[in-house]
Amino acid sequence: MVSSSHEALHRIFQEDPALFARAVKALGVSFAEPVSAVPLTTDLTENRPVERRVDTLLRMETGDNGSFLLAVESQGKQDRDKPASWAYYLSHLHAKYRLPPVLLVVLKALASALKGLSADDENTASIFIELTEQGLGKTPAAELWRQIMAADLSFFQSETAQSLRAEGRAEGRAEGRAEDILLLLERRGVVVSEGERARIVGCGDLDVLGVWFSRAITASSVAEVFGETE
Predict the structure, then answer these.
(1) What would the DSSP string read from start to end of 8-36?
(2) pTM for this prediction
């Protein structure tokens, strides 16, 4: 049963619409002062199930034993309804998993950024392309990402773009992938000996290089990349 004090606490905002703006102003938050308040139904129950899906949802574990949710959404064109849907996704995820959610909207914007990056650092851009595709997994967003790569970023020498165009020699692709692995390890601070570097550069098997690249994303040593740890 709702108490009289509880009812009065909420009723006051109906009787004095400007009270809200005055109250939050003391906290350093500015709102235009309301001149009227119209009561709406307080029942927020869903009357029917509504299907809502994100393209990719990942639970991310951080180095300080923390966790958060990463929701990845692809957006190829402007949609005014999307912000409302995204706000619902984030509140629902927080209520369901009790973890802070983060929304990442990618593809067109990311592709444009990578296109600009390529002029100064093509290898880094190539790595980001591959990491994005692997992160999207087997989702509709992944297929859209491949289409963007083929149409807008065909000048990249990444495996994604090359497989879509069906161009280039296998030897050149292997060399490019080996360079990507070494650059990724370097950026992550993993020490690579001369012998290990020679083994990576000398590998001409694209399947093996693909496995090594995937391991290099999280490996703490080159031995882990080669799968030689116990």
Answers:
(1) HHHHHHHH-TTHHHHHHHTTT---PPPS-
(2) 0.41
